Predict the 3D structure of the following.
Amino acid sequence: MRNNERKIDELRPITIDTAYTKHPEGSVLISIGETKVICNASIEDRVPPFMRGQGKGWITAEYSMLPRATEQRNIRESSKGKVTGRTMEIQRLIGRSLRAVVDLDKIGERTVWIDCDVIQADGGTRTTSITGAFVALVLALGTLIDKKAIKDMPITDYLAATSVGVLPDGTEILDLQYEEDSQAHVDMNVVMTGNGQFVEIQGTGEEATFSHAQLQKMLGLADQGMKKLFEAQKEALGKWGSLIGEK
Amino acid sequence: MRNNERKIDELRPITIDTAYTKHPEGSVLISIGETKVICNASIEDRVPPFMRGQGKGWITAEYSMLPRATEQRNIRESSKGKVTGRTMEIQRLIGRSLRAVVDLDKIGERTVWIDCDVIQADGGTRTTSITGAFVALVLALGTLIDKKAIKDMPITDYLAATSVGVLPDGTEILDLQYEEDSQAHVDMNVVMTGNGQFVEIQGTGEEATFSHAQLQKMLGLADQGMKKLFEAQKEALGKWGSLIGEK
Amino acid sequence: MRNNERKIDELRPITIDTAYTKHPEGSVLISIGETKVICNASIEDRVPPFMRGQGKGWITAEYSMLPRATEQRNIRESSKGKVTGRTMEIQRLIGRSLRAVVDLDKIGERTVWIDCDVIQADGGTRTTSITGAFVALVLALGTLIDKKAIKDMPITDYLAATSVGVLPDGTEILDLQYEEDSQAHVDMNVVMTGNGQFVEIQGTGEEATFSHAQLQKMLGLADQGMKKLFEAQKEALGKWGSLIGEK
Amino acid sequence: MRNNERKIDELRPITIDTAYTKHPEGSVLISIGETKVICNASIEDRVPPFMRGQGKGWITAEYSMLPRATEQRNIRESSKGKVTGRTMEIQRLIGRSLRAVVDLDKIGERTVWIDCDVIQADGGTRTTSITGAFVALVLALGTLIDKKAIKDMPITDYLAATSVGVLPDGTEILDLQYEEDSQAHVDMNVVMTGNGQFVEIQGTGEEATFSHAQLQKMLGLADQGMKKLFEAQKEALGKWGSLIGEK
Amino acid sequence: MRNNERKIDELRPITIDTAYTKHPEGSVLISIGETKVICNASIEDRVPPFMRGQGKGWITAEYSMLPRATEQRNIRESSKGKVTGRTMEIQRLIGRSLRAVVDLDKIGERTVWIDCDVIQADGGTRTTSITGAFVALVLALGTLIDKKAIKDMPITDYLAATSVGVLPDGTEILDLQYEEDSQAHVDMNVVMTGNGQFVEIQGTGEEATFSHAQLQKMLGLADQGMKKLFEAQKEALGKWGSLIGEK
Amino acid sequence: MRNNERKIDELRPITIDTAYTKHPEGSVLISIGETKVICNASIEDRVPPFMRGQGKGWITAEYSMLPRATEQRNIRESSKGKVTGRTMEIQRLIGRSLRAVVDLDKIGERTVWIDCDVIQADGGTRTTSITGAFVALVLALGTLIDKKAIKDMPITDYLAATSVGVLPDGTEILDLQYEEDSQAHVDMNVVMTGNGQFVEIQGTGEEATFSHAQLQKMLGLADQGMKKLFEAQKEALGKWGSLIGEK
């Protein structure tokens, strides 16, 4: 039995608050257990230089943690004067994942900036960010529909992410808390769509390795967790949720 | 009459939530009107090099805004690779203000890091940060008393901040919202202690000037606003509030 | 009695040399006591991006100290790879102060760069910089009149700055030397115009506070010091001085 | 049929030259098709601060491309003044992968620096780097055995990496060249050990997704490719190869 | 007698491989003794901003060493976040030297980027870079002739570089290896053209000085070494070599 | 005839003011024609890490120009966040040159920081810096003798620098002004000692070359110019000058 009587294939409680702050086109506070992330989506009416003139849009993401989101205070990246490798990896992952379910042609020459700011961390900040960012993105695109700037919701399917791993005793588990994550021999992040396709799989042995059988077991757990995440997203999205995947 | 039927000498509504996130020794979410700032205080058991060996503590502050805390999205300072002049000015102001009411000798060789992260901005983010940071600081020092690491609360008085200004029509007003702030000819931040002493006065004519009489009028408004701020702090602080200023 | 038999309400000797170096449109060496600053004003025939197309000009300032302007050698900011918070605060203050007495519409789309380089520091480098920079600015604008690029002197009033403070024994003093400054409990910089209006007031308790009465006393001293500063500026400016504030 | 009559489950030709440059403890030039990487391993007799005093060693990797390793010249990261996110991701991957097969306790307090410098790029530079770096690492550790600084080869198993992907027509292929890589809908890097365990799986849909069946097919291709890579490593390693995985 | 029975006026063996990597317009691996440098020349169809609109071309150079090109591993400049003074000096020298024999008007508005990457260092890396870069440059310009983008070879003469120095015992020597270089009291780099003109002389006493007579002796040695370098270049250049200096 | 009726072998007027600012151990304002440089020497009682424990001292130099030392205003290197290649080259040259005439063993574990800040530039700023820095250095070392921290003046000979060049018409000239410098085909900086030895020769053809005969002629002019420079230094140094080169 895990912390809080959680079962090995059980997600932590999920809450998704929308309209969390007033300025962004889409603003979400997502909590998965004790991990809390503000996901804001901002629409800018132009695209980066490498995209100009193609009539297509772009989605890009940034990720950060408040210095004391964690047990120990971290130095701000702005004070260090540079973004760490871990942050870059995460923000590239978030952006790439979201783009897999967006029809960029339908957005027009606009950029959606996704800002994921972790205010409290307890494991799974990158997967929680993706799950929350998806909701913020849909809400922001909804404002474009409301303003009649675009006609259809340019989202082809739901998208969420979760983590799975292998504990030192060999047990495969779903949705790792910080403490579990720091002990796990294998840590895998899985990003999937509503119809069960993979968008991204990143499995890593931490000074350890894993077998084909363990991989399958972990993928099964991830698949199972996704259902709850999509439900929570659907509920948070209200009317916009039903437009997803429409032709 | 101002927005929301506010009078010229009236503060916006104040709320101060404590224990806002779980990791910091002191964690506060302060809202003054629509301006919302997370103020976290973290205790580190050592001081910066220039303070070592003096048996004294240190208080330092950092300030940041979420990219979309504002109407227009701002580029992250970590992406720019440097902290702007405005941010530096504000974090120096917060740290200096707090140190004016702390007996650093009583803290021992510890640093209290104050992190003010603005999640929604509507004018007065620096004064709101100071007012909230004071509460987070006292709470963090309270944990040292609880752990018997120090004996007395090393805070000599309450401390809060507010803004005052002069509108284009010459009216002096208290607690400027963003819209008022961007029009004002004069903008002044005042930091004061519970017994009515000044800690910091920063009055600036924005391509304008102000007279001695206007200065006096603004200082009077500030003085008036302080009372409400100290009340809100006292309520948020509970038992720790009564230890402030004790010998 | 202070150093050099100076009275508490007495400025140090002021000298302002013009045409100090040959390239800048306005070039001044100002000494207030042992504090010496080269203030150069350079005119550039365009404005920064955020000002373009408005037909208005811009004034911006930079501030630096030679590494050995001080008792201890300081590391160059170019070697550190960044400008410190203190420097940014000062250069923002200088630019903002000057803009308060300039009619930017009359300059046309030009930028005046003000460079204040402290070659010897003994307290009051920022206020000395403002006082000297004003002279360099007027001289530089004079070259535009000489070249018939503009018709009138676009300066609405004289502008100077000084420091006042409170010593540990409670005495309020005018124009602090380095040694006094490092002991003072309160340090206040005041920027004023020729007709006695305030442009900027920055009063700071250094781990201390100050009362309303002390504030008034300090403002009185500042007011008194301004007269001498305006005289010295007038003398240095020669014919250009008489055009200031003309309609 | 692919370029050069290559089959979909066929690796490009592999060559591994050892002792490529004279200074490093291990120096390898690896070519997989037209992708050429210099992999140097350098031994330093101390570990980074966070590892000190544990009696263990550390393996860290850096990755770079010559500016003209690619079709278009890239700006040097030293000129940009920062390492890109892509480079950071790759160097973290290389280091993490190698550490999975090293018994760090047996190295003593030493760091092995792995430098992978791509001199010619044609797809698969990160997997080629891992495969070559493994050889350089073993050779460098061999010098420690030769100098009797350590007793046993602290490598628990062979380690290599390859890429697999899905072409737009749905075909799964092994070992993508640059041209294939830039068209592929799915791109997956797989790092495996000699006994068939996974160390790292990174599968990414590029604005696309992939099914469970496609994942299995790709993993099968990767598994197949590994055999050739281990053979080439074994041949390059000579006597040192036979010590791998010994107790 | 020097290392490898070399005489004091004898160059180390020279080899120049062309078409070393496939992407650059000119790609050379030059070895002088154990010093090995990859010199790549890349043609870009535009010039830097300060050259635009003049109908002329530009040549610029960058220089770097692999971290383990040397006996001790060096930290990458990309990790440091800045290019060192030594590197800047060298790349400025390479670019300036090459430009002395190029008729920039004949290149059209194109930039030739010269990248010199030292893969193994044993003294004389900057002079070896210049000698190799000249070959890469001519080959790259040759591709422009082949594509009929330009008519004539815009190179006015051969160009090579070598080092000379004075050992502690007073002997003047040609082409210093690393060990000799680190002992030498005087170190001089000489860049010359095929017809015996100087392009650059940089002679430095390392905490030492040198006489007029020593200078003459060193220049004589340099002159002698040049002949072999020009021969090696001519051989490497094949048909393109004969176009050099043609009207 | 040159500007101001100067002959081709004639230096511009030299003035060297000592004790120019009050804080540095040695402080000099040197003017050669219209080029004016403040050269300050600061003594620090420790050496950089790479020199520790050898009982020897170190001399290091920094160089900068006020933004408007030149006809066009330059951006500050602190604003750019990095030191340019030109600056690095110059400060390395100044430090290296001075060290050639200092007996570092006699200084003890001290660093002398030389700061050369150009306040007005009209050609020859680097050679003027060296000539002035030498005087500042001797004065600073003199304070060590005065304080009995060292016994003898650790300077083995006088040291000065000048520039020579070749004009487009082929004339060799001494001590180039800015206008001459920007036209010259060849530009050479020569650093020499009081007894006529070379410390540094840096001759550069600017998109041009020079013959052996021209080199000799330029060296002759440099030699001639040195005499005047040494006289001016001797006069400025007073009593300290006579201790130079004593055993």
Chain A has a mean pLDDT of 96. The beta strands of chain A are 14-18, 26-32, 35-44, 58-65, 111-120, 159-166, 172-174, 186-193, 198-205.
